[in-house]
């Protein structure tokens, strides 16, 4: 977990959606702190046979996706690899504590 957090400034005060609005985390209604990453704590992809990405982000049915907590709360403080979702449907993502948000990277 420490590898992915080194030098990372992602937390509740720095996480925004594509409209520049603050995301809702623990203490907000609704709590939507789960972000879809599909990654291990060190930031790399899983190499086992399990589905950690809702069938490469194409399924809204069966499967699960690995999520992180952008606000770094809820026991495990990893922003990129905290727990699996209950499923891949919007209903299951919301029930798990999210809204189906992706964390996207931009490179210059």
Describe this entry's structure for a reader.
Helices cover 14% and strands 13% of the residues. Strands 3-2-1-4 form a four-stranded mixed beta sheet. The chain starts with a helix and ends in a 6-residue tail after the last strand. It is α+β, with helices and mostly antiparallel strands.
What's the number of extended β-strand segments? 4
- Counted by DSSP, the helix tally is 3
Q: State the low-pLDDT regions, or none.
A: none
Report the portion of residues in β strands.
5-15%
Fraction of helical residues: 10-25%
Topology:
Blueprint: H1 2-5, E1 34-36, H2 54-57, E2 66-69, E3 83-84, H3 90-96, E4 98-102
Parallel strand pairs: 1-4
Antiparallel strand pairs: 1-2, 2-3
Compact summary:
It contains three helices and four strands, in the order H-E-H-E-E-H-E.
Provide the descriptors you would attach to this structure in a database record.
108 residues; alpha+beta; 13% strand; globular; 4-stranded mixed β-sheet
């Amino acid at each position: 977990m420490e590898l992915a957090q080194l030098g990372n400034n992602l937390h509740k005060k720095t996480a925004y959606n594509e409209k520049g609005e603050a995301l809702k985390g623990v203490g907000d209604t609704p709590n939507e702190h789960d972000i879809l990453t599909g990654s291990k704590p060190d930031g790399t992809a899983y190499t086992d046979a399990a589905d950690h990405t809702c069938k490469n982000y194409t399924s809204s049915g069966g499967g699960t996706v690995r999520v992180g907590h952008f606000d770094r709360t809820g026991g495990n403080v990893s922003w990129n690899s905290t727990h699996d979702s209950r499923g891949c449907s919007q209903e299951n993502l919301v029930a798990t504590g999210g809204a189906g948000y992706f964390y996207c990277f931009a490179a210059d």
